[in-house]
Amino acid sequence: MVIDPRARRVDGESVRIARDVLSAGAGGEVRVCVLEQGEALPKALARGNGRQLVIVGDDRALLRAVRMLHSEGHLSARPLGVVPVGGSTAVASALGVPTDAVAASRAVLTGRTRRLDVLTDDAGGVVLGTLGIPAPRGRGPASGWWRAVPFPRPPRQGRPRGRAEQRLRVEADGRLLADQDRPVAEVSVRAADGLADVVVRPGPREVEVRARASSVTVSGPTGFSYRANAVDLGPTRARTWTVLPGALHLAGAAP
């Protein structure tokens, strides 16, 4: 069990509860690692010696662990549990993880392990759930806009407020879905069933384009922002996302 220091500062009682429930349920066979300021996460996780990892912390702690395991090639080899404690828990909640410390801890002990597809990008990032372009304006990290479900259709009367159309080139496995000669209102990408569901929405009077692909590349002459893992990222001029089928083994999450 790896305890993020922010979780202890924000909600030490929930951390204690998670530790007690996990230790009791595992017959005391729980090795606890409390990260201290400045301690490298890779060293902390390496002490697990192949055991199942349980992260006690917020979305940032979960994503740091996922990125680290991916960078070392161990993401699909080690089941990962999470007990959401601390700041934003929108990502964990969208993945089906209980947000209550007791329920989440019990789910890790008794729940089945789900294999989830993830998106990885050419900058070393990992996306859990749906990403959207552009990043919505004026919304915080816990916005309900980000969900691990298919991207909702916009109202028929026009594009969503506050999102300007932009010139983007979108390719799915080399197939051109949009080019810079026409404006694009929205793009969404979500890993599901081994491939990425890609939706490109042009202006309000044009038909959206859908595709299934293993790799998606988006580029734009002036750069673009995007929202992934409940966080706004960018701007960047180009980014490629690739699907890793079943790469994340998440323990205790509801289907």
Automatic annotation (TrEMBL):
Keywords in alphabetical order: Kinase, Transferase
InterPro entries named among the record's database cross-references: ATP-NAD_kinase_N (IPR017438), Diacylglycerol_kinase_cat_dom (IPR001206), NAD/diacylglycerol_kinase_sf (IPR016064)
Tagged with keyword Repressor: no
Domain DAGKc stretches: 38-119
Ranges in coiled-coil conformation: none
Gene Ontology terms for molecular function: kinase activity
Gene3D superfamilies: Probable inorganic polyphosphate/atp-NAD kinase, domain 1
Residue spans crossing the bilayer: none
Protein name per Swiss-Prot or TrEMBL: Diacylglycerol kinase
Organism the protein comes from: Streptomyces sedi
